[in-house]
Design a protein that fits this description.
Distance between the termini: 85 Å
InterPro entries: Tetraspanin/Peripherin, Tetraspanin_EC2_sf
Order of helices and strands: HHH
Largest sheet: none
Subcellular location: Membrane
Membrane topology: Multi-pass membrane protein
Shape: rod-shaped
Strand content: under 5%
Number of helices: 3
Number of strands: 0
Transmembrane segments: 76-99
Structural class: mainly alpha
Radius of gyration: 29 Å
Number of domains: 2
Pfam family, one: Tetraspanin
Length: 115
């Protein structure tokens, strides 16, 4: 019954007790990790992973969603940095053109007097 009501993030006593025991006693589920497949938490998360308290530090596929989100965020960050660099380069080029225009007398306005 306790496993059926596990929520993962809520500070409920039952969820905290499960997490604590899995971390301290180094076990997962009642018999093994497949016990989690029959819980409401596993079905609701739809990420086919077990609770973090069940994971070993060396497990590579324990919580796949967190790693996938980190990879996606790194791509987003690199894309944003590249876009910022392009914008900065564009502003620098515009400043160079304006500075050169103000110093070079060859550039003059086509319309000098009113309309």
């Amino acid at each position: 019954k306790v496993y059926k009501t596990y929520s993962g993030t809520n500070p409920e006593a039952a969820s905290q007790a499960i997490d604590y025991h899995q971390r301290q006693l180094h076990y997962c589920g009642i018999h093994n990790y497949s016990d989690w497949e029959n819980t409401d938490w596993f079905k609701e998360t739809k990420n086919e992973s077990i609770p973090l308290s069940c994971c070993r530090e060396t497990a590579s596929s324990c919580n796949s969603i967190v790693k996938k989100l980190q990879e996606i965020m790194m791509h987003v960050i690199w894309a944003a940095l590249a876009f910022a660099a392009i914008q900065l380069l564009g502003m620098l080029c515009a400043c160079l053109v304006l500075c050169r225009r103000s110093r070079d007398p060859a550039y003059e306005l086509l319309i000098t007097g009113g309309t």
